[in-house]
Design goal:
The complex is a heterodimer of chains A (266) and B (144).
Chain A: H1 2-23, H2 27-30, H3 33-55, E1 57-58, H4 62-78, E2 87-92, E3 98-100, E4 105-109, H5 110-115, H6 119-134, H7 137-146, H8 148-155, H9 160-172, H10 177-193, H11 199-210, H12 220-223, H13 228-239, H14 252-265
Parallel strand pairs in A: 2-4
Antiparallel strand pairs in A: 1-2, 3-4
Chain B: E1 2-3, H1 12-30, H2 37-49, H3 55-87, H4 94-122, E2 127-128, H5 132-139
Antiparallel strand pairs in B: 1-2
Classes of the chains: A alpha+beta (266), B mainly alpha (144).
Amino acid sequence: MKKIVIQGLILITVFCAALFVLRQIDWMKLFKVENYTQKTEKKLGEQLWKIYKDGAKDSSDTLLINAVDTIISKLCAENNINRSGIKAHLLIKDEVNAFALPGGHLIIYTGLINDCDNQEQLIGVLGHEIAHIQLNHVMEKLIKEVGLSAIISITAGSGGDMLRQVAKMLSSTAFDRRLEREADLKSVDYMINAGINPKPFAIFLSKMAEKKPDKTKYFSWISTHPDSQDRANYILDYIKVRTIKNEQVISSSIWDKIKMNEKDSN
Amino acid sequence: MQAKPFVYIPGEHEAEKASNSYLMSLIAIIAGLPLPIINLLATLAFFIGNRKGTYFVRWHCTQALLSQLSLLFINSFGFWWTVSIIFSDEKITNHYLAYIFCVIIFNVADFFATIFTAIKTRKGLHIEWFFFGTLTNLICRPKK
């Protein structure tokens, strides 16, 4: 009996030792798993972007396009984010919405610009979506919701309906509470690092909380981001002890002109 | 793994049946069945079919079954880990890949050991595996 126990222990030890040795190897690097993941994400992002592109018109307002580009460039520069990794697209739509797609695509509807009272509110929302991209929330959500096998089949070109469902899901459903909180606070960090006051972002969320999403179909960002008041509160708590500056990324006159243009176009 | 003298010299028919008990566990792998339990079920079916066979046949059926049973645990864990990666939010990590390669190494080792034992047993030689042979000696006794 003693012999069996010793032999059994030796066998278990051999298995554990083999596992320990194999764990010392960086398999992810060896098999370029990250590269493959990035390629899949990029391909999926391009496929999804094509769906949105076909469904709405690109904004031709150069002032607005330049302003959004300036804002994103500023946030990226002050937070060591690779600017070329963020591909912003401005689409003409009344919906108050902005959302991230895989592969760094950031879709912004002009309805959001209309609803922002000042540039800080817009920066807060853009920072929030950039945070989702930087923290890899988009792929995390997709893998959780649709699974890796479905993502691979979509990118292989054999999931047209599934692709449309994924597109709808990304623009109309929220991330889970933990991911939303992470993105909110990351956005606040981005803003503070860039010298921008994040308080208006909290005010924007409070404003959203007061509006009832079921009464207007246009407020997608509220319905996809629930508990806006709660979010506003934890942002205000988070910035209480932080040093806040009040820098402007774009001049007030340009912001006013953008708002005027958007109002006229409606 | 080593060749040891058996309590009696097995006949040609016994050697063939004993050898088949190892081949049963290989059939499932060769057929490409992905479920780890299939190997065990194939061996178990053969074991049940031969439980009233001669001591030599019973002994080798038992050893084949026990070796498959141990693989079932490590293979099942790897199998369900893989399923959770494909169908849920579980991610591919270095730990996962290390485990899968470890499982592959042990399965390949078991595969060759099984082939080797099947060939030797077919020749009437008695091969006792490390641990599983000792365990089989404890479980499988000659009929009085």
